[in-house]
């Protein structure tokens, strides 16, 4: 691997990130790495590639474990994660606070809050929405077509590599649950911002039952993305069926080069979410206050680190009314940023681009400073950079019809105000490529079991296998 050998004298000066390999903890400080956003050094053991791969000659451990038992185990895991006495979770949060851009309180809320996904009714609903017949996860389901030909179909346990994102530690909990419910053999590639949460959850599972098939089906390691020595070994159809990849454009592009027959990609690739605010928002003081508050909620989802967080807000108004909206939006973003304790300044490149806009004429107007406390830019069309870190770009339009031309396949969530006009736009937004439309202020929560990024993920994860049994003899069933 392309990693720096650890100087043992520095062993106490770096954050330690152990691995979890098919039920066993792997500790050590053999390799040094740097976190993506803060450049903090953390140390890992070497990857034992043989232990990270589950041989295809062995049936996946979870294959014949009933789904109901898997869900019960996940529910118990959620209860343990929420337990204040869980030392694995507490250590995880302590360590992640050193490597992650988000404040400790936000990270703690994310990890503990993610345990809410491990709810029995929620998990059952997710399965039912993803599979027309969930029995296919537990058994070979008999079929017969109109010609009388018989067969059996099963959603067979896949072998998955999960490339996890760095922006949301909650995704680790969700990915573990989904991998378990499809009975997969799972290898989780952790991010440099969070090489801790996945292992903490798996250690919690191992404490419940170290020999459970879920525990034996899970491995979590870290390597630097693009490390050819590791990826050319692991990213092969001999070992895995699919890569489930979250992340930015570079991360997805890196994965794509390894794809080929028998080795597929399920991509939660880079997305940008927006808001569309109709003229009704500037019709009264009360509506203006409400729309600004709802829009700020969508901007500040996970302090604007989440894909669902709004970055561009299209406002159907004249310039004067649009500026009033910007003023109130800015005040509410500042309030939320202060309450979260997140005061990260904008990075240098973003600061320079915004400061350049400040010097231009009335085409642009800026509320706030580039100090990370919250900022709003008003423009006539979207800025050509990616607003992040509590930065919103309000784009004034004469009609929301004009806003639709900026929607494309990279548009994930559209927060809409007023909600009564949503049916008039949903077909058009879907045609442009958008994947989700919600009421303004509701970008964060989602309906349980709904499609994610225009697909039902669990249905995509599994290996669909058919056993053809020929035509039934005449006179038999």
UniProtKB/TrEMBL annotation:
Family classification: Belongs to the LuxC family.
Oxidoreductase recorded as keyword: yes
EC class of the enzyme, as a word: oxidoreductase
One Pfam match: LuxC
Keywords: NADP, Oxidoreductase
Record GO biological process: bioluminescence
Reaction equations catalysed: a long-chain fatty aldehyde + NADP(+) + CoA = a long-chain fatty acyl-CoA + NADPH + H(+)
Protein name: Acyl-CoA reductase
GO molecular function terms attached to this record: acyl-CoA dehydrogenase activity; long-chain-fatty-acyl-CoA reductase activity
EC identifiers of the protein: 1.2.1.50
InterPro entries (alphabetical): Ald_DH/histidinol_DH (IPR016161), CoA_reduct_LuxC (IPR008670)
């Amino acid at each position: 691997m392309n990693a720096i050998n650890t100087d043992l004298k520095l062993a106490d000066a770096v954050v330690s990130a152990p691995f979890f390999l098919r039920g066993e903890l792997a500790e050590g400080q053999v390799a040094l790495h740097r976190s993506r956003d803060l450049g903090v050094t953390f140390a890992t053991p070497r990857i034992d590639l043989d232990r990270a791969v589950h041989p295809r000659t062995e049936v996946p451990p979870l294959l014949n474990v009933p789904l109901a038992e898997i869900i019960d185990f996940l529910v118990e895991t959620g209860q343990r994660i929420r337990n204040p006495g869980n030392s694995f979770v507490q250590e995880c949060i302590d360590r992640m606070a050193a490597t992650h851009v988000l404040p400790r309180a936000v990270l703690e809320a994310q990890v503990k809050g993610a345990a809410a996904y491990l709810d029995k009714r929620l998990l059952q609903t997710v399965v039912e929405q993803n599979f027309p017949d969930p029995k296919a996860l537990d058994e070979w389901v008999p079929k017969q077509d109109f010609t009388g030909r018989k067969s059996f179909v099963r959603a067979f346990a896949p072998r998955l590599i999960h490339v996890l994102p760095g922006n949301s530690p909650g995704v680790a909990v969700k990915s573990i649950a989904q991998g378990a419910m499809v009975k997969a053999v799972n290898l989780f590639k952790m991010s440099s911002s969070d090489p801790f949460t996945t292992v903490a959850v798996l250690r919690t599972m191992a404490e419940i039952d170290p020999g459970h098939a879920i525990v034996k089906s899970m491995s979590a390691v870290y390597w630097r993305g693009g490390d050819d020595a590791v990826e050319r070994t692991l990213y092969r159809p001999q070992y895995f069926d699919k890569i489930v990849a979250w992340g930015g454009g570079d991360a997805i592009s890196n994965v794509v080069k390894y794809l080929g027959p028998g080795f597929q990609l399920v991509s939660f690739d880079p997305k940008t979410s927006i808001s569309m605010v109709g003229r009704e928002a500037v019709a009264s003081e009360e509506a203006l206050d409400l729309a600004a508050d709802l829009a700020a909620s969508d901007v500040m989802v996970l302090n604007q680190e989440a894909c669902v967080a709004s970055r561009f807000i299209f406002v159907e108004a004249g310039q004067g009314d649009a500026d009033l909206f910007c003023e109130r939006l800015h005040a509410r973003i500042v309030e939320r940023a202060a309450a979260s304790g997140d005061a990260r300044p904008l990075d240098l490149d973003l600061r320079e681009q915004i400061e350049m806009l400040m010097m231009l004429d009335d085409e642009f107007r800026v509320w706030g400073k580039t100090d990370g406390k919250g900022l709003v830019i008003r423009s006539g069309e979207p800025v050509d950079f990616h607003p992040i870190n509590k930065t919103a770009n309000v784009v004034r339009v004469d009609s929301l019809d004009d806003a639709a031309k900026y929607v494309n396949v990279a548009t994930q969530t559209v927060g809409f105000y007023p909600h009564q006009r949503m049916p008039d736009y949903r077909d058009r937004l879907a045609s442009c490529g958008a994947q989700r439309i919600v009421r303004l202020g509701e970008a964060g929560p989602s309906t349980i079991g709904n499609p994610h990024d225009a697909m039902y993920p669990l249905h995509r994860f599994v290996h669909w296998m058919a056993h053809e049994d020929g035509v039934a003899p005449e006179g038999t069933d």
